[in-house]
Every structure is written in structure tokens, then in C-alpha cells.
Amino acid sequence: MSPSSDPVTATAAYVTAPYAVEFRHVPLRNVGPHDVLLEVLATGICGYDMEIAGHLAAEPRPFGHETCCRVREIGSCVSHVAVGDTVVLESSAFCGDCAVCRNGRVDLCRNLLGIGAEPVQAFADVLVAPARVVVPAVGLHPTVAALAEPCGVAVDMIRLAEIGMTDRVLVVGAGPIGLMALAMARKATCGEVVAVDSNPGRLAVASQLGADAVYARSEAPLPEIGRRHGGFHALLVSAPPSSLPGAIAAAAYEGRVVFIGFDWGEGGKVTIDTTAMHLGKVQLRPSFASPALFLPMALDLLRAGVVPGETIVSHRFPLSRLGDALRTVASERDTTRKAMVIPDARFAELAGEGATE
Ligand SMILES: [Zn+2]
Ligand SMILES: [Zn+2]
């Protein structure tokens, strides 16, 4: 379909810290030959969105990237999706042209393309995106498909952890990423899978997803949990960096500690026992899912129910109540896993059971 010349106006959210949202009516840029015009169906609130809304956004700024959309128009050079298709977006895509991409390491590409620079992002009703970040996502409910991007982050952790079929796995931090990683780890090993979090509600979900044991943070320090279970071969840490020394001490011989938790300030600096790591052959492996990879695999895991999307999604809000959604995620950690935001015109149709008033 050739791009129409009618300008499309988005209703888009702009956030300022702390947790204040304003809506603007913004004319979208023209759909270029390599772009798509998308109607937003559902967008998840991510930890990074919470950082922006909590303290990073001094000026009003657009946000939202974990999204499922329907294609409304495609540029003249776009062929991998068609009008009407349900799609998800990579938060950033590798370029395919630079030296590292051509050397086969697209995961190391730093010449990234995404919607992060667009004036309208996924907390909106429509947006224009580069076609290269668009991934077809048939056969899933939009609020489940919108988990593809964070599920891809969990896939990256699982891949780095190299879980063997009998390995014992410790999941530190049972937020959405940790829970999705736990669900995958459960399939990867017949060894014990154990979860730790400060939050009883999240631990209950970890049990539901197949954890053999769960611990509240206050119950036992990580090294002690390691001793009780004979040490862990794979440790999946989606928690603040202060968890890393304990996770390292909970590792079995040749354990792999994979982490994604970060802290912008001094909390990013921790002291680790390198001698114990050396003598225990313990490896610390940072997972940084940029560029965003593995979305087709994540969609398959969601379709297969290996990652049960309906369990991960805990809240649904109409776009007009995005501010309430952000404050809920910030204050109700016990019951909040992934909150989905749905444009108001679609809310009745897509929110389904369990919709938040
Ligand atoms: Zn995200
Ligand atoms: Zn590249």
C-alpha cells in the first residue's frame, strides 16, 4: 500500500518525574519508504520506563517500547509485514551493515535503530516506526505479545547461563524478567530451580511457575541458600547489583552468574571476592539485551505457554490512566508483575478479565 498523504495525529503520553504524565495531540511524521504506521494495541510498563518516570525525565518526554501493534500503513520498500498484521517492536535493532554485524556478531552492533528517538513512542494510540524494528507476531493476544521484548531479555539471560540438563538454578529477583527466566529455566533442567525475592506475592508466582523452593530475602542470605542446595550452576540475577557478591558465593564450582540489575549511582559499585571466583571457576556474565534480539523465539515461547503470558501480566490500564498505572507499579510491588497499557478506544475489547478499573 502506498503511503497516504493524510496527516495522522497521535494522542501520546509525555512523562515527567516523579510519575506525572501529560497527553499531547501530535501530528506524526510522514511514513517514509522504510517506515510503518502502527496502531498501538498494548504496551507494557518496563523497569526502564519506571526509571524515566521516577527520576530521569526532567523535561516532558515520550516513552514506552514494549509494544504490540497493528500495521495500518507500510512504506513502499517494506515487504516483511502487511497492513492488518499484528506485530511487536524491537526496542533497538542491529544495523546489518557495520563491521561487527558483517563479522557475524550482530549482538555487538552499536549502530542501533529504534523508536527511542521518535517524538511519539509506544505510550500513544498510533506511531511511526522504522520497519526494521518490526517483528510479525501472529497468534497471540496483544497483551501477551507485548511481552516479547522483555521475554527476549530473559532469553538472553538464559542463553548466557548455559543451563545444563541437571543444573541447579537460582533466580534472584522475581520481577517480570526473573519470572520469565524462571519459567524457561524450569524447562531447561531437571535440577532444582530456586527463587529469591523480598516479595511474598512474587514468590508465590515463582512457585506457580515451577520453582522447587522459594526464599524471602529476609529468610536467609544468598550464600546460605547456596549451601543448603549444594551450590547453583546457573544464577539469574535481575536484582540490584548489591545482590552480586552473595550470588557469587552461592555458586557451585564453575557456576555462571548472569545479571541484568543496574544502578545509575554508587549502588552500581560492589566488592566481589575474585579469589573465590578464581578458585571456584565462577563466572560473572552481564546480560545487556541491546540490540534487542530473540523476539521471534520469545513469541514462540509465549505461544507454547513455556512462558505463560497471562500469569506475567498482572494489570491492565487504559492509556488515559497511565499516570495511575505508573504509580501502581511503583507502590504495589507485591501484586504487580507486568502492567499493560491499552489505548482507551481498544480497552473494552482487549483488557478482558481482570481489567483494572
Ligand atoms: Zn523494556
Ligand atoms: Zn551493525
Q: Level of helix content? A: 25-40%
Sheet-strand content, in percent, reads 25-35%
Major sheet description: 7 strands, mixed
Number of helices: 13
Fill in the CATH topology of the largest domain. Answer: Quinone Oxidoreductase, Chain A, domain 1
Q: Average pLDDT value?
A: 95
> Outline, from the CA principal axes?
globular
Bound ligands: zinc ion
Quick structural overview:
Helices cover 30% and strands 27% of the residues. The protein is α/β, with parallel strands linked by helices and 357 residues long.
Overall description:
The protein contains 13 helices and 18 strands. With 357 residues, it is of the alpha/beta class. Helix 8 links the parallel strand 14 and strand 15. It is globular, with a radius of gyration of 21 Å. 51% of the residues are buried. The site of one zinc ion has 8 residues, from helix 2.
List the helices and strands and how they pair.
Blueprint: E1 9-16, E2 20-27, E3 35-44, H1 47-56, E4 61-62, E5 66-74, E6 86-89, E7 92-93, H2 99-102, E8 113-114, E9 126-130, E10 134-136, H3 142-145, H4 148-161, E11 169-172, H5 176-188, E12 193-197, H6 200-208, E13 213-216, H7 222-228, E14 232-237, H8 244-249, E15 251-259, H9 274-280, E16 283-286, H10 295-304, H11 309-312, E17 313-318, H12 322-331, E18 338-342, H13 344-351
The chain binds zinc ion (ZN) (2 copies).
